[in-house]
Amino acid sequence: AQSVTQPDIHITVSEGASLELRCNYSYGATPYLFWYVQSPGQGLQLLLKYFSGDTLVQGIKGFEAEFKRSQSSFNLRKPSVHWSDAAEYFCAVGAHSGNTPLVFGKGTRLSVIA
Amino acid sequence: DGGITQSPKYLFRKEGQNVTLSCEQNLNHDAMYWYRQDPGQGLRLIYYSQIVNDFQKGDIAEGYSVSREKKESFPLTVTSAQKNPTAFYLCASAVQTGAYEQYFGPGTRLTVT
User: Fold this and answer.
1) pLDDT band at B1 (very low <50, low <70, confident <90, very high)
2) What is the spatial distance between Cα B91 and Cα B52, in angstroms, rounded to a whole number?
3) Which of B89, B100, B110 best tests the A interface by mutation, with the highest count of A CBs <10 A?
4) Cβ contacts (< 8 Å) between B100 and chain A: which residues?
5) What is the DSSP string of B49-74?
6) B-chain residues within 8 Å CB-CB of A49?
7) Nearest-CA distance B87 → chain A (Å)
8) Under an 8 A CB cutoff, do A44 and B33 touch?
9) Closest-CA residue to B52 (of B30, B28, B19)
10) What are the pLDDT digits (tens) for A41-58?
């Protein structure tokens, strides 16, 4: 069964600084990988996804993520953070075959300071 | 507009009462999901459904029940057997179960006192 770990519970960055949120997965084959964002009291919105092909994927709101098979990672990055990026971010992993639902990490809360 | 609706946004109940949370989607998705979210716990899967009249228990199904009589609807009942029902509940749907992106509703915050 697949699993996912987000090592950082809470990260604080300054507005305009770069951001990297970590995600490590466990799965025997090539996984399907997702990043979602959740504003307080809201549902989750998909930022980007990786299924195959180019290991650097672009998403909405200026985010990108890179799949690194050797490190079992799918870290989310943004070159310059805006105050509106403050939210909770969830990484999720899906199995290549079968009907197993996505498995979500516990999330990383991002705070942005002036 | 296609999407998922959850109602109500806030729900208050007395302890010992069953309560049903609504989830409707017009995306023509086969799969639907219910998650519970508590601070620091991430998303925990309660139940999911692959198709009408079929559903599977997730990781924390005890104290909850669901039905899937229509493709568009997947209501969740929080029963009096659920020991800690106060939480934020999220419904999601996807084209199919498995590694397909899930689309989420806005959530319902349930408070039981």
Assistant:
1) low
2) 16
3) B100
4) 94
5) EEETTEEEE-TT-TTEEE--SBTTB-
6) 101
7) 11
8) no
9) B30
10) 999 999 999 998 889 999
Say yes or no for a CB contact (<8 Å) between A101 and B96.
Answer: no
Q: Residue B67: which residues within 8 A CB-CB, separation 6 or more?
A: B55, B74, B75
CA distance B105 to B87: 15
Predicted confidence (pLDDT) per residue in B13-63, tens digit = 999 999 999 999 999 999 999 999 998 889 999 999 999 999 999 999 999
| Cβ neighbourhood burial of B56 (10 Å; 0-12, 13-18, 19+) | middle
> How many residues are recorded in chain A?
114
Which residue type sits at B100?
Answer: Y
Q: What are phi and psi of A85, to 5 degrees?
A: -80, -10
| 3 state SS of A70 | helix
Q: In chain A, which residues have their Cβ closer than 8 Å to the Cβ of B49?
A: none
Q: How far apart are CA A112 and CA A92, in angstroms?
A: 23
A94 touches chain B (CB under 8 A): yes
Query: How far is B90 from chain A, CA to nearest CA, in Å?
Result: 7
Asked whether B79 and B66 are in contact (CB, 8 A), the reply is no
**Min Cα separation A82/chain B (Å):** 23
Contact assignment for B40 to A106 by CB distance below 8 Å = yes
